[in-house]
Design goal:
Radius of gyration of chain A: 18 Å
Distance between the termini of chain A: 50 Å
Helix content of chain A: 55-70%
Largest sheet of chain A: none
Oligomer: homohexamer
Shape of chain A: elongated
Number of strands of chain A: 0
Structural class of chain A: mainly alpha
Low-confidence stretches of chain A: none
Number of helices of chain A: 6
Order of helices and strands of chain A: HHHHHH
Strand content of chain A: under 5%
Chain lengths: 132, 132, 132, 132, 132, 132
């Protein structure tokens, strides 16, 4: 189980419940996943992390699906099992098809390969790529 | 300079030139960036890597811009300076605006933060997130 | 199970037992955790790794608790499940409270976020930060 | 230069200036480092990131120096040159001596070594380390 | 189970079966490991990945055992459980003894330690190490 | 320059000089690279790190060239510029040809790609790969 355990809704303080309620309302679900229940032991971090994610993942110049796929791409690249599982579910809910998932993973794999080839070959940045 | 140096078009073998030509034709440019010139010392890897990237980055279930942004997201997460510079340029060419870039980076930053919070708190994957 | 298996005290050579004995004496415990039992297949690495850890984790300019928390911070950042579990236990034994753990994780998460924002935005090091 | 350039105080909007002012007041300095000037192109991320760092780095269960050293430890482990330079400066300002820096780095190095030994040897988590 | 599930030989398309057949023939085995069964949902990625690995892992300037050990070294450094398990098996099949494995891990651990010491101490590259 | 600066032979204490002398004698060179000069501010870490590297890199079940290539593979995978530069030089001195370097990098790139494909697809370890 999580280091500090999980705080269920029933056992949560009013402040934690308010965050849980906002998570469920924002996501249109009736449950809270373990990540938030684990963070709830530190209400300040729970509140700040949720507020940040809510703001960042809101559709803007990028739509919700693209943002979820980027989140999943980073999590797969970092090899974080929990994050891969949860953001695969979130991306699917936002519309990611199996074909989109497969192409996403192909890009993630390729980027990880060429990142190391570039580093290993000690390739210098082209002048044209440098920011003025 | 790169470990094995860079092979310019003029000095390249016919096989390497064929790859260079295909890169320029596919990308609609008249120059080759250093990454390919460094890889050209190993024609098999040059050929294979380019063929893979060409296939993977071709619009499919995901459009070209989304793919370039995912490539940039992974490169930023891996902190690869060359790849960040080159794929920022490529994503911009594919249509990424400053606002899109900023939102992309916000997601990358957040994903890296929560990946570690999840790991540090030893959070178990929720049953609902597990693949059947 | 571990790649080469685990070597229990009873089955260990005299040299390995000497390391086990020193681990237990130094830590004030009566058991050996799996990491050492796995390394015991390579007595030279077992001996060298333990000697290094013993020297590094000894209170000096930094106290034992601070050192254990740094070890945990790096392990959480690297997302190493075994290391997170073992160094959470070690840090607690050294005095880490739940509140300290939570603040530690908040810093680890934040550092991982800003590390990528800095890289992604290609921020140059300020002159004032450079070592003379 | 940074991808989107740097926004100096004189050229900043009122909202960005307010963040800059708070950074300088909180840190007791009269200048803004490049990280914030780069983020200023995205005022929402600038504001959110600064608010998070301000809250997280405030002395609490852990003192300011310990927090800065943990930030530096993670940045060194992630090999982020900008972050290492800036947080080395910040940690020194908070009281880190050369001896403390050296011990910090020794722990960071060791943790990175054993994280991989554990993974490579496929060591299972001891029952005693598992959270109830 | 894997995100998209596993495709067994019996349920596979002719194109996927052709890859499976080539994997088994090349490796001299009569079974397919889960990685390929998971990738089979994306036949293009399955085909491209297998063709790349087959080409890369073929003995050349480096023999098969050395290549498998390098693959394992990277996987251990990246802390990828599946890859560590599968490439430990592959390296053993190619001739890796327990003593070789132990020395391999010792190098991987040490490299991860000094990579961070170098970064943390902000050591500049010696002139003699720079490529002309 | 390095965080704590570099300690040249002339300015070094007797203990540090002894390590420098052993490095030069062991490697058959007449100079010390910056890494050691930076670590010299912490004689205990200098001594311990050198002793560990000397022991680990000594030919055993694996020859010196293989060990240097593994060190380089990990450094390229970790994207550590100093380590890539120094261990490329060391591997070449030990006999690495350009063709060997190119194959080494191809394996490093591929391993980084498949490590993420495996993680992203959430592939479970095959029973046959599990250690008994």
């Amino acid at each position: 189980m999580a280091t500090l355990g999980l705080i269920e809704y029933e056992a949560a303080s009013a402040g934690v419940r308010a965050v849980y309620d906002d998570i469920m309302a924002t996501r249109g679900t009736d449950w809270i996943n373990n990540f938030w229940k684990a963070l709830a032991h530190d209400p300040a971090t729970l509140q700040r992390t949720w507020a940040s994610i809510k703001e960042i993942m809101r559709p803007g110049a990028l739509d919700a699906l693209t943002k979820e796929m980027i989140y999943l791409a980073v999590s797969a690249s970092n090899q974080c099992p929990y994050c891969i599982a949860s953001h695969t579910a979130a991306a699917r809910k936002a519309g990611m098809t199996d074909a989109m998932f497969a192409e996403l993973m192909a890009v993630v794999g390729m980027a990880n390969e060429t990142n190391r080839l570039v580093s290993g070959y000690q390739v210098e940045v082209d002048e044209r790529f440098k920011c003025k």
